[in-house]
Design a protein that fits this description.
By secondary structure, the protein is of the alpha/beta class. The protein is 41% helix and 11% strand. The chain contains twelve helices and nine strands. Strands 1-7-6-5-4-2-3 form a seven-stranded mixed β-sheet, with helices on both faces. The protein has a two-stranded antiparallel sheet with strand order 8-9. It is globular, with a radius of gyration of 21 Å. The two termini are 23 Å apart. 46% of the residues are buried. The model has no long low-confidence stretch (mean pLDDT 96). The protein binds pyridoxal-5'-phosphate (PLP).
């Protein structure tokens, strides 16, 4: 019986061990742990890789969103429109700013925010739209940007699952006013702990972000604005600089694993039984932080795979409008049917550059076995 991990960070580490250890040693020998050259260089290199004018690092992807909110001046009395089918941090960052998260349903195929529903949710209090590039598939940004320009709203892209080398004209997280990224270990570029990054094309906003992450202080003990402590550790920056060099290669490897899954599902006659992630249009890239299939028998399939030694995950089992933490917003079950349906049907399969082809075959064969025996 195979034992297939959902994510195998040890296998990744084995391929870059020497460079990572050298980077750690360099920081330890410098004893410079807060900001400094490693952080500055990571920001420069990330900006170049992502095609962003400015990149400002911070302590986590959650903080990246929160800092973008603060820099945009979003706070109590304001509303921010977002998707309920995402990680909690997306709407959590809105709530932490004092503003009110306003949910709209998702598109049933892309699982990203349904652009057609955004306009009806705009009120005189709306300040921003916060689309998420879920699983690494870009949200439909152009109509969102057009709507935002027309209604004078800020667009903050939650690109936590969508860090990618620059492509076409625009990378993920560079079209809106802010792009927000995470270096959580399971993201496409993950640190040895928490970390995050905000991109922006606006140099005064970049400057503001740099102030906000150090308690609003340019000169020691002079505080121009209220901020917080949210810096990326120099140790993390040094490790991330090593990993960033693999961004292009690892992205391509994720994409080729996804393509192989599609072939296998096709070969085993499963494409009518399970729904595969949408194939993005040519000008859009999917960077497959997750490869999530959908089927109505999701929970039984997941059990079957677990018993077959195959680990899977569910992103996300409960949409945010039904989470106790957001009960105060007053939403109820049935309000966002597409998000609710997706939460019952999605199942993320292992996908990472080190995933072996033989494992992919075992995974899809096990799924075929499940449907052959249990239906
Ligand atoms: C991971 C993630 C975040 C937050 O990142 P952390 O670094 O874990 O704080 C935000 N939004 C989405 C969609 C994420 O997947």
């Amino acid at each position: 019986m195979p034992s297939i991990a959902f994510l195998d960070l040890k296998a990744q580490f084995a391929t870059i061990r020497e460079d990572v250890m050298a980077a750690i040693t360099k920081v330890m020998e410098s004893q410079v742990f807060i900001l400094g050259d490693e952080v500055r260089l990571l920001e420069e290199e990330a900006a170049t890789a992502l095609g962003a004018k400015h990149a400002v690092s911070c302590a986590s992807g959650s903080d990246a969103l929160a800092l973008a909110m603060m820099a945009a001046g979003i706070g109590p009395g304001d509303e921010v429109i977002t998707t309920p089918f995402t990680f909690v941090a997306t709407a959590g960052s809105i709530a932490r700013s004092g503003a009110k998260p306003v949910f709209v349903d998702i598109n049933s195929l892309s699982l990203n925010i349904n652009v057609r529903e955004i306009e009806a949710a705009i009120t005189e209090h709306t300040k921003a739209i916060l689309p998420v590039h879920l699983f690494g598939l870009p949200a439909e940004l152009q109509p969102i940007l057009d709507l935002a320009r027309e209604r004078r709203l800020v667009v903050i892209e939650d690109a936590a699952q969508a860090i990618a080398p620059r492509y076409d004209d625009r990378g993920f997280g560079t079209a809106g006013k802010f792009g927000s990224f995470s270096f959580f270990p399971s993201k496409n570029i993950g640190g040895a702990g928490d970390g995050g990054l905000v991109t922006t094309a606006d140099s005064s906003l970049a400057e503001r972000l740099r102030l906000l992450r150090v308690h609003g202080s340019r000169n020691k003990y002079h505080h121009e604005i209220l901020g917080t402590n949210s810096r990326l550790d120099a140790l993390q920056a040094a490790i991330l600089r090593v990993k960033l060099r693999y961004l292009d290669r690892w992205t391509r490897e994720r994409q080729s694993r996804a393509a192989r899954y599609r072939e296998l599902f096709e070969d085993m006659g499963l494409t009518k039984t399970v729904q595969l992630p949408p194939v993005p249009e040519p000008h859009f890239r999917h960077v497959y932080n997750q490869f999530s299939i959908r089927c109505r028998q999701r929970d039984r399939l997941r059990d079957f795979l677990r018993r077959s030694g195959i680990s899977t995950e569910i992103y996300y089992p409960i949409p945010l409008h039904l989470q106790p933490a957001f009960a105060y917003l007053g939403y109820s079950a049935g309000q966002f049917p597409q998000a609710e349906k997706a939460s019952l049907e999605v199942l993320a399969l292992p996908i990472y550059p080190e995933l072996q082809e033989s494992h992919q075959v075992s995974i899809v064969r096990a799924i075929a076995d499940f449907f052959a025996t249990s239906n």
